[in-house]
Protein backbone atom coordinates (compact mmCIF):
# COMPACT_ATOMS: atom_id res chain seq x y z
CA UNK A 1 0.00 0.00 0.00
CA UNK A 2 1.33 3.42 -0.91
CA UNK A 3 2.04 6.03 1.74
CA UNK A 4 -0.73 8.25 0.32
CA UNK A 5 -3.27 5.43 0.51
CA UNK A 6 -2.21 4.54 4.06
CA UNK A 7 -2.56 8.18 5.19
CA UNK A 8 -5.97 8.43 3.57
CA UNK A 9 -7.07 5.17 5.24
CA UNK A 10 -6.00 6.56 8.64
CA UNK A 11 -8.04 9.73 8.05
CA UNK A 12 -11.04 7.65 6.98
CA UNK A 13 -10.83 5.60 10.18
CA UNK A 14 -10.88 8.86 12.13
CA UNK A 15 -13.97 9.99 10.18
CA UNK A 16 -15.72 6.68 10.88
CA UNK A 17 -15.27 7.26 14.62
CA UNK A 18 -16.24 10.95 14.55
CA UNK A 19 -19.04 12.28 16.73
CA UNK A 20 -18.25 16.00 16.45
CA UNK A 21 -21.70 17.04 15.24
CA UNK A 22 -25.27 15.97 15.93
CA UNK A 23 -25.68 13.99 12.68
CA UNK A 24 -24.17 10.80 14.09
CA UNK A 25 -26.73 11.01 16.92
CA UNK A 26 -29.74 11.78 14.71
CA UNK A 27 -30.13 8.41 13.05
CA UNK A 28 -27.03 8.10 10.88
CA UNK A 29 -25.68 4.55 11.04
CA UNK A 30 -22.32 4.84 9.26
CA UNK A 31 -19.98 7.67 8.42
CA UNK A 32 -19.22 7.94 4.70
CA UNK A 33 -15.62 9.17 4.33
CA UNK A 34 -15.34 8.78 0.57
CA UNK A 35 -13.58 6.40 -1.80
CA UNK A 36 -11.38 6.25 -4.84
CA UNK A 37 -7.78 6.82 -5.79
CA UNK A 38 -5.46 8.51 -3.28
CA UNK A 39 -3.71 10.00 -6.32
CA UNK A 40 -6.81 11.10 -8.22
CA UNK A 41 -6.52 14.06 -10.57
CA UNK A 42 -10.26 14.65 -10.17
CA UNK A 43 -12.22 14.87 -6.94
CA UNK A 44 -16.03 14.81 -6.96
CA UNK A 45 -17.64 16.43 -3.92
CA UNK A 46 -21.34 16.04 -3.21
CA UNK A 47 -23.48 17.35 -0.38
CA UNK A 48 -24.16 14.55 2.12
CA UNK A 49 -24.77 10.80 2.22
CA UNK A 50 -28.27 9.52 1.52
CA UNK A 51 -30.04 6.41 2.84
CA UNK A 52 -28.15 3.86 0.73
CA UNK A 53 -24.81 5.53 1.44
CA UNK A 54 -25.58 5.56 5.17
CA UNK A 55 -26.33 1.83 5.12
CA UNK A 56 -23.21 0.88 3.11
CA UNK A 57 -20.73 3.51 4.32
CA UNK A 58 -19.87 4.34 0.69
CA UNK A 59 -20.57 7.53 -1.31
CA UNK A 60 -22.99 7.66 -4.24
CA UNK A 61 -24.24 4.07 -4.24
CA UNK A 62 -28.00 4.72 -4.56
CA UNK A 63 -29.94 5.90 -7.61
CA UNK A 64 -27.94 9.15 -7.84
CA UNK A 65 -24.75 7.09 -7.63
CA UNK A 66 -25.82 4.88 -10.51
CA UNK A 67 -26.36 7.99 -12.61
CA UNK A 68 -22.98 9.37 -11.45
CA UNK A 69 -21.39 6.14 -12.70
CA UNK A 70 -23.08 6.70 -16.08
CA UNK A 71 -21.85 10.31 -16.09
CA UNK A 72 -18.29 9.14 -15.41
CA UNK A 73 -18.56 6.71 -18.32
CA UNK A 74 -19.68 9.53 -20.65
CA UNK A 75 -16.58 11.49 -19.56
CA UNK A 76 -14.35 8.48 -20.23
CA UNK A 77 -13.57 8.08 -16.52
CA UNK A 78 -13.64 5.11 -14.17
CA UNK A 79 -14.91 5.40 -10.62
CA UNK A 80 -11.73 3.84 -9.20
CA UNK A 81 -9.48 6.47 -10.82
CA UNK A 82 -11.29 9.48 -9.29
CA UNK A 83 -12.07 10.30 -5.66
CA UNK A 84 -15.70 10.74 -4.55
CA UNK A 85 -16.78 12.24 -1.24
CA UNK A 86 -19.25 14.66 0.34
CA UNK A 87 -19.03 17.92 2.25
CA UNK A 88 -20.80 16.25 5.21
CA UNK A 89 -19.77 12.74 6.24
CA UNK A 90 -22.97 11.56 8.03
CA UNK A 91 -26.52 11.42 6.65
CA UNK A 92 -28.79 14.29 7.70
CA UNK A 93 -32.23 13.13 8.92
CA UNK A 94 -34.76 12.62 6.09
CA UNK A 95 -32.02 13.72 3.64
CA UNK A 96 -32.51 17.36 4.64
CA UNK A 97 -29.88 19.92 3.66
CA UNK A 98 -26.88 19.93 5.99
CA UNK A 99 -26.93 22.83 8.45
CA UNK A 100 -24.04 25.34 8.55
CA UNK A 101 -22.64 24.03 11.86
CA UNK A 102 -22.72 20.45 10.53
CA UNK A 103 -20.78 21.54 7.46
CA UNK A 104 -18.27 23.34 9.70
CA UNK A 105 -17.80 20.22 11.85
CA UNK A 106 -16.93 18.12 8.77
CA UNK A 107 -14.92 20.80 6.99
CA UNK A 108 -11.50 19.86 8.51
CA UNK A 109 -11.93 16.30 7.19
CA UNK A 110 -12.68 17.50 3.66
CA UNK A 111 -9.76 19.93 3.80
CA UNK A 112 -7.46 17.10 4.86
CA UNK A 113 -8.73 14.86 2.05
CA UNK A 114 -8.08 17.60 -0.51
CA UNK A 115 -4.57 18.24 0.89
CA UNK A 116 -3.73 14.52 0.75
CA UNK A 117 -5.11 13.84 -2.72
CA UNK A 118 -4.07 17.14 -4.33
CA UNK A 119 -6.60 16.97 -7.18
CA UNK A 120 -6.03 19.05 -10.30
CA UNK A 121 -9.79 19.49 -10.63
CA UNK A 122 -12.59 19.56 -8.07
CA UNK A 123 -16.03 18.83 -9.50
CA UNK A 124 -18.72 20.12 -7.18
CA UNK A 125 -21.95 18.11 -7.36
CA UNK A 126 -24.84 20.43 -6.60
CA UNK A 127 -25.34 23.85 -5.13
CA UNK A 128 -24.37 23.02 -1.53
CA UNK A 129 -20.97 21.69 -2.52
CA UNK A 130 -20.44 24.53 -5.00
CA UNK A 131 -21.45 27.12 -2.41
CA UNK A 132 -18.75 25.94 -0.03
CA UNK A 133 -16.00 26.65 -2.57
CA UNK A 134 -17.60 29.27 -4.83
CA UNK A 135 -19.92 31.29 -2.57
CA UNK A 136 -22.42 33.68 -4.07
CA UNK A 137 -22.78 31.91 -7.42
CA UNK A 138 -25.93 30.28 -8.77
CA UNK A 139 -25.51 26.78 -10.15
CA UNK A 140 -28.07 27.48 -12.87
CA UNK A 141 -25.77 30.22 -14.19
CA UNK A 142 -22.33 28.59 -13.80
CA UNK A 143 -22.77 24.82 -14.22
CA UNK A 144 -20.37 23.36 -16.75
CA UNK A 145 -17.97 26.32 -16.48
CA UNK A 146 -14.50 26.01 -14.95
CA UNK A 147 -13.81 28.52 -12.20
CA UNK A 148 -10.56 29.32 -10.44
CA UNK A 149 -10.72 30.21 -6.77
CA UNK A 150 -8.62 30.06 -3.63
CA UNK A 151 -7.77 26.43 -3.06
CA UNK A 152 -6.88 24.27 -0.09
CA UNK A 153 -3.60 22.80 -1.30
CA UNK A 154 -2.82 25.27 -4.07
CA UNK A 155 -3.35 28.99 -4.43
CA UNK A 156 -5.69 28.86 -7.45
CA UNK A 157 -7.73 25.65 -7.56
CA UNK A 158 -9.84 24.80 -10.61
CA UNK A 159 -13.46 24.01 -9.73
CA UNK A 160 -16.06 22.66 -12.11
CA UNK A 161 -19.63 23.00 -10.80
CA UNK A 162 -22.31 20.67 -12.13
CA UNK A 163 -25.81 19.85 -10.99
CA UNK A 164 -26.12 17.07 -8.43
CA UNK A 165 -26.86 13.71 -10.13
CA UNK A 166 -30.03 13.37 -8.01
CA UNK A 167 -31.44 16.48 -9.71
CA UNK A 168 -31.75 14.49 -12.96
CA UNK A 169 -33.83 11.89 -11.12
CA UNK A 170 -36.38 14.56 -10.20
CA UNK A 171 -36.01 16.65 -13.35
CA UNK A 172 -35.26 14.37 -16.35
CA UNK A 173 -34.52 17.46 -18.48
CA UNK A 174 -31.30 17.92 -16.53
CA UNK A 175 -29.96 14.51 -17.54
CA UNK A 176 -28.64 15.73 -20.90
CA UNK A 177 -27.29 18.92 -19.30
CA UNK A 178 -25.30 16.86 -16.80
CA UNK A 179 -23.97 14.52 -19.47
CA UNK A 180 -22.97 17.47 -21.67
CA UNK A 181 -21.18 19.12 -18.74
CA UNK A 182 -19.38 15.90 -17.78
CA UNK A 183 -18.11 15.41 -21.34
CA UNK A 184 -16.15 18.68 -20.90
CA UNK A 185 -14.01 17.26 -18.08
CA UNK A 186 -11.34 15.39 -20.15
CA UNK A 187 -10.78 18.50 -22.31
CA UNK A 188 -10.61 20.73 -19.25
CA UNK A 189 -8.17 18.40 -17.50
CA UNK A 190 -5.75 18.67 -20.44
CA UNK A 191 -5.78 22.48 -20.14
CA UNK A 192 -4.96 22.56 -16.42
Task: Walk me through what this model shows.
The chain is an alpha/beta fold. The protein has a single domain (3-191), classed as Uracil-DNA Glycosylase, subunit E, CATH 3.40.470. 43% of the residues lie in helices and 14% in strands. The protein has 9 helices and 6 strands; from the N terminus they run αββααβαβααββααα. The protein has helices at 3-16, 51-56, 63-74, 100-117, 127-133, 139-142, 165-170, 174-182, 185-191, and strands spanning 35-36, 42-46, 83-86, 121-125, 147-150, 156-162. It has a 6-stranded mixed β-sheet with strand order 1-3-2-4-6-5, sandwiched between helices. Helix 1 (3-16) packs antiparallel against helix 4 (100-117). The longest helix has 18 residues, at 100-117. The protein starts with a helix and ends with a helix. 43% of the residues are buried. The mean pLDDT is 93.
